[in-house]
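User: I'll paste a sequence; please echo it back and then give the predicted structure.

Assistant: Echoing your sequence first, then the prediction.
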Amino acid sequence: MRAKALEGDLSEFPLTDIIQLVDLSKKTGAVHIQGQRGIQRMEGWLYFRDGKIIGAELPGMAPMEAVYTFFTFSAGPFRFYDDVLLEHPTITTSNEVIIMEGIMRQDAWATIQEQVPSLMMIPRLVPNPSSGTTEINLEAEEWRVLTMVNGKNSVAQIAQRSGLGEFRTCEIIAELLKSGLIEERETNPAERLLPELETIIANAVGAGAGTITQDAFQQAEIDDPTSVTEEQALQVVGYLEQSLTNLLDAEQSRAVSAELRARVRELLA
């Protein structure tokens, strides 16, 4: 009798249970995850050998950052494949340590989201910040993030361009918001379009998403992305689709293009 495949949805079967089940059964293979976190969708792989985690992949992320990011997904389908193997391990940390850190990351992410509810949030500098009698001392990473806060870059763009990853960037943004150095800037739907398209592309291809997205706007001869119409935006998606066909397989390209078009219609229709 053939064993039932390990598959389901993270909303009903959390990552901790998946890891423990694979560990108990000493399986070798990989779990394909199409995770969802708010409006953000991300797709990646978690690799096992004899039940132990040996690697993780999410576009634009180092293996350990990827595996801990999986813990922040609230929903999304997953499936285990025993014929998808990772030849060279990229993670040597034990499952127990990964689970402990992952749960801490999950809890910390929930707290961060109270300050930073969306990666599409666009922060700006407060013109005359008042720190009261408390002196504000920023570390190097905090300065790096602060220099990218210009009222145009979204949190997702800052995370990608700073190289600090989404979690650390959001953690810093949350602290800067609480300190009164920055604030959220109100935006219209068209202003949010470019960073949201860039984030979808980044989730699919990783580094270079900003250049690909900006090139598509230039090809569509759009000088001001903040006032783009739905028709213009769909034209941009057409150019993005051409770029994606050179970077992804046909099925992935179609899926990402569909997600881009859906987001355009949600924002601008």
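The chain has three domains: 7-112, 116-184, 189-268. Residues 116-184 form a domain with the Arc Repressor Mutant, subunit A fold (CATH 1.10.10).
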